[in-house]
Amino acid sequence: MSGQAPRPGPDEERAAPALPRAPGDGLREVDAEARALARRLLEGARHGALAVLEAGSGHPAASRVALALDADGVPLILTSTLAAHTVALLTEPRCSLLLGEPGAGDPLAHPRLTLFGRACRLERDSPEGRRARALYLQAHPKAALYADFADFAFWRIEPQRASLNGGFGRAWALTAADLAPG
Amino acid sequence: MSGQAPRPGPDEERAAPALPRAPGDGLREVDAEARALARRLLEGARHGALAVLEAGSGHPAASRVALALDADGVPLILTSTLAAHTVALLTEPRCSLLLGEPGAGDPLAHPRLTLFGRACRLERDSPEGRRARALYLQAHPKAALYADFADFAFWRIEPQRASLNGGFGRAWALTAADLAPG
Fold first, then answer.
1. Model-level pTM?
2. What is the ipTM, given to two decimal places?
3. A54 Cβ partners below 8 Å, 6+ apart?
4. Are B61 and B53 in contact (CB under 8 A)?
5. pLDDT for the residue B105
């Protein structure tokens, strides 16, 4: 293999124009299709990648969380104060949640949704806390083994906006209202 | 019968579940098994969740990236300056990368690895840039359609430390050296 950066050959030159330039290259107008895709990703998500600011360092940190949806469609998580992401959220509630699982083939060809929002901790014995517990355990029954431990709590990840990527070249910027159940 | 140990009552049984307390409840000593699991997650990852600090707002932001490994085992990504995560990394190179895909069942029972590090942009025509291109396109051949566009560049996500979670109650804090190919 030559050490030189290869120039695109005729085939690649022909192929390139067919491919949209990049995921972020121009946002599409938000329409019913985009809202439906975002809701589908939200409703289908059993887990996601949570991005927080690590307590102390302020370093971005990504971790896996299991997910359920609250009655109004807002994502719910259940975390322990022993977990670093919980310590982070107690310090800085701003967070982001990536949803949508890639299937086979190119991982960037599959749709995904990034929520930008704030984590709101629910009091265990409040109506909101009890509702969250019921809905979460409906989605994740085995979490009943630890949901009631004193160091665990439910949180709502309240979206303020979102970035939807439907695959190469199909990107939308969504508002919180766009994410609400139709 | 005499001499029998008292059996726990129903309440005690509920209070002492067989499940470990929490993912972050005590870190295990890093051993060969942990290093091998981390390497397996790294080597098996075709995509990951990248956490960055959004440019301007400083809001944590999670997004999907396709991954390959550089010759020394460091993750490589290919991004466009038209994508928000690239703009973020150009402003603040600190980032985090979550690897490992959940299979069926409880999403928190499957192992995952969070890298904490810095993104380092590779010059297209440097030896490092050409090597990254070759290795990345080996893993993602279709990316040849856009890898040479002027707004795209390869980045190394250079880990400084990592958090490994092998499933409930199995957590390790790894150094960069722990992640190096054995």
1. 0.87
2. 0.86
3. A60, A61, A84, A88, B116
4. yes
5. 81
Q: Which of B17, B19, B98 is closest, CB to CB, to A62? A: B98
* Residue with tokens 């390139």, as numbered in its chain: A16
Structure tokens at B149: 């566009």
In which element (H, E) is residue B61 found?
strand B60-66
Nearest-angstrom CA–CA distance, A152 and B110: 20
Which candidate from B24, B61, B124 shows the least CB-CB separation from A5?
Answer: B124
Rounded CA-CA distance A153/B137 in Å is 44
**Pairwise CB contact (< 8 Å): B59 & A116:** yes
Enumerate long-range contacts of A67-71, CB under 8 Å, 24 or more apart.
A67/A97, A67/A99, A67/A139, A68/A132, A68/A135, A68/A136, A68/A138, A68/A139, A68/A140, A69/A42, A69/A43, A69/A135, A69/A139, A70/A131, A70/A132, A70/A135, A70/A156, A71/A131, A71/A135
Contact B63 A16 (CB under 8 A): no
Which amino acid belongs to residue A92?
E
* pLDDT recorded at residue A3: 40
Mutate to test the interface with A, among B57, B64, B95, B98 (most CBs of A within 10 A): B64
Q: Does A140 touch chain B (CB under 8 A)?
A: yes
- The reply to whether A158 touches chain B by the CB within 8 Å rule is no
